[in-house]
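Hi, does anyone understand the following?
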Amino acid sequence: MKRRDKILEILKNKKEITVKELSNIFNVSEMTIYREIKELEKEGAIKRKHGSILLNTGKEKEVVKVPNCPICEKPITRAHPYKITVEDEIIETCCEHCGLMMHKKLEDKEVSALTYDFITENPISALNAFYVVGSSAIPCCSPSVIPFASKEDAEKFKKGFGGKVMTFIEAYNEIVNNMQISMKSCCSHGETITFSIKEIKKSS
């Protein structure tokens, strides 16, 4: 039996093996094993994974799973999605628009929320941010809700793209009151502040 056939027989039994192990089994140099492996790989009989050699069954495919937004069900592809922490659980949404709609579902809960400045991408407490709502710039869901750390930057953005500059609770009311609330509607840590929408409404 040829060495390559023996390698395949070994893999049928062991499922996975290293070049060094094969070198010891056949009492040959690792370079000799590498040459055999290269030929088997060309034939599609085997594959390499993290330094090991496996039979290529054609069944295993690597799938990159992207989480979906719990509101609009779009894939969350942003590097810095909107994050809500509630009862030690972190909920991520695709954008601030859906983040505000998620707050509606958590209205009676004490939460903290983190967003990221549109210009600098620095993390900021969602409660302290200023938002440009309904501008012509729509990076994700519509109407867009774009966060800024400073009101001045939000006003400058508004001049170029329109929309309204709002506080957190103003943006929340604007989005929630004008959208049908549905799980399938529409798309270094900063400081976190615990708050309840219900309590904010009482004091505003």
Observations:
- The domain at 82-203 is CATH 3.15.10 (Bactericidal permeability-increasing protein; domain 1).
